[in-house]
Write a structure and sequence with these properties.
Number of helices: 9
Oligomer: single chain
CATH architecture of the largest domain: Up-down Bundle
Number of strands: 0
Order of helices and strands: HHHHHHHHH
Largest sheet: none
CATH class of the largest domain: Mainly Alpha
Number of domains: 2
Shape: rod-shaped
Helix content: over 70%
Length: 360
């Protein structure tokens, strides 16, 4: 039965990685972790397999074996769910650290804020980008610090629980109390991380990107309209020049016509000069707004990665809380096999190590 569970788990894991690879292969902007790191995501799984197989082989009681297998199955479902939320491109590839993605978002915002000589309408969009992003960055950085502090404080506590489980002289009630403290700390962290409303921020950036693209299109349209006006004026000038030559051919009888044609041509030339100057201004606005639209779009791409990373962080914490609750529930059974609970603690420790890698 255990072999069937593990084999199906591996099949699901590989199928999920292939599906994710197909779905994301066109997103060139998504950063990738260097080769060799991807196996780290499988370490808790492999450790669970190895230790549970060894534990099951040493258990004679059939009922205990069934309970352990049921628990393993539940753990695998949790890990598969967690893994599904964090594949990037290709089999078993994992996300970049939270630090690197935060840096990408900061760089994107700096590029927007560094654009000079924007038209007034674009300046509004430029300022709005900071209004949207900066509070979200501050909250995410605060949650990151809280996660780092949580690991620093509670990882040693969990290591101590592991030692206590290996010492039969320490009562289960004492261990439950210690796990309860870790659980409270984990739930406190969960409250802060769950308060990160990155989805709303992502929507605001999308709306801002749409505004910048619309403004770019508007300036482009204005340039086209002015160019059409210039072409029309040039046609009228050509007609006036043709008429002037006609009046010149009439000699003294055509003086009045020549003067009128000259006035018309002068007015048209002034009109063309004025339109040309306006085009220069509108083209500058167009190119500057196009630059802004491109930077806002890149900001959206960078923040989308942050959105995914925050989702991963929430999943990791939920997984840890689920494991803590599972450990406490098992410890409430007076006949619990401590060796089995140790396996759960080891799995939780490995998950915390993975969390530390991502947030550090």
């Amino acid at each position: 039965m255990l072999n069937e569970i593990t084999e199906q788990f591996i099949i699901d894991l590989k199928n999920e990685s292939l599906d994710k690879s197909k779905a994301t292969k066109n997103f060139k902007s998504k950063p990738q972790r260097p080769q060799g790191k991807e196996k780290k995501v499988l370490q808790p799984i492999q450790l669970l397999f190895d230790k549970t197989k060894e534990a099951i082989n040493n258990i004679d009681d059939l009922k205990k074996k069934e309970l352990l297998i049921e628990s393993i199955s539940r753990n695998m479902e949790n890990m598969l769910s967690l893994f599904k939320g964090n594949l990037s491109v290709g089999p078993f590839e994992v996300k970049n650290s939270l630090n690197s993605i935060l840096d990408n978002v900061r760089t994107s915002l700096q590029q927007i804020e560094g654009i000079q000589s924007l038209p007034p309408e674009a300046v509004v969009i430029q300022g709005e980008a900071g209004v949207i992003i900066k509070p979200s960055l501050q909250k995410t950085e605060s949650a990151q610090t809280a996660a780092i502090d949580f690991i620093a404080v509670n990882n040693p506590k969990l290591e101590e629980v592991k030692k206590e489980l290996e010492n039969p002289a320490i009562p289960l009630e004492t261990i439950i109390e210690h796990m309860g403290v870790i659980g409270i700390n984990a739930n406190t962290l969960k409250i802060e991380v769950d308060s990160l409303n990155t989805n709303a921020t992502l929507s605001e950036i999308g709306a801002l990107s749409a505004q910048s693209i619309a403004l770019e299109a508007n300036f482009n349209t204005q340039v086209s309209e002015l160019e059409n006006l210039i072409r029309d004026a040039e046609k009228r000038r050509a007609e006036a020049e043709s008429n002037r030559w006609y009046w010149l051919l009439l000699g003294p009888f055509g003086v009045a016509g020549v003067i009128a044609a000259a006035i018309i041509i002068t007015n048209i030339n002034n009109e063309i000069d004025e339109l040309t100057n306006r085009i220069i201004g509108y083209k500058q606005n167009f190119f500057k707004t196009k630059e802004l639209a491109s930077c806002v779009s890149y900001l959206g791409t960078s923040y989308q990665e942050l959105y995914g990373q925050v989702g991963f962080l929430k999943n990791e914490i939920d997984f840890i809380i689920g494991e803590i609750n599972n450990i406490i529930q098992n410890l409430k059974n007076p006949e619990v096999d401590r060796d089995v609970v140790v396996l759960y603690v080891v799995t939780t420790l490995d998950t915390m190590k993975q969390l530390e890698e991502y947030v550090g």
